[in-house]
Give the backbone structure.
Amino acid sequence: MAIRIQLDRILLERRMSLTELADRVGVTLANLSILKTGKARAIRFSTLDALCRELGCQPGDLLAHEPGPQETGVDLDPDDA
Amino acid sequence: MRVPTFLKRGTSGLTARRFADANPLRTLGPGSVSSVLKIALDVAYVLLALITAGLLILFIVAIFIPLSDLNIVVSDDSGGRAQTLTRPLLLFGLGAFTAWFGGFLLILRNLRKIFRTLTAGDPFRPENVSRLRAIGLILAVVTAGVWVAQGLVAARLAPGVMDSQGLGELLTPIFSVLVVFVLAEVFREGARLRRESELTI
């Protein structure tokens, strides 16, 4: 996906573990892992708000756009293929 | 700020739970109307399986045991009249009933699987799309089979006993089959939204 979540870098800078962030933000660790590994399809504004609040950063610090080929991403409906 | 585990956002079955919370009569999830219907379907499935098995055994027995023609009395408005129960008529009747019950057995089998997901509170599983399509297909085959079989009995096997069906009588089955196919597509859309929702954090 062309949009990348730079959660690893920010967590390292804040010296915070993913488990701790999950606890603070109120998102399950599994969902936060999906976000971190770039498998997420979308992010809610409320989640982004909570992440920015707990990490003390701006959305732009968390998200980065990497130019590349058209997104192949997650196949939402394999039956349509 | 620590958030209790039970307040954390999950994704699977979220819509179903919201829906269940908004309705005083719970239709989805454990202990709901779906679970009661599932038990009823289980009972019906077992009964239908026994009937189908019985008919199948009768059909096989009828193939191998030579039966002499029997005279049965068919009642109608003008009184009774004799109808010879020929071997082909008996075999055809038994075969048709076995196929009819077998078809409904397959429909119930798919319905039970669908209701299992409803009882689990997760209706929009991708498997339910193919199950609904299978139900629509079997329903189409069974109703078309009944229509053809009734026509065959009326015209060839036992003329006068049964009225031939008109095309108008196919309207309701066609409508039902189309509704099931549309529902399958609704479930496909639901499954797509579910997958999208699962990957929205």
Observations:
- Residues 73-81 of chain A have pLDDT under 50 and may be disordered.
- Chain A touches chain B through 22 residues (CB under 8 Å).
- The helical segments of chain A are 7-14, 18-25, 29-36, 45-55, 59-62.
- The domain at 3-67 of chain A is CATH 1.10.260.40 (434 Repressor (Amino-terminal Domain)).
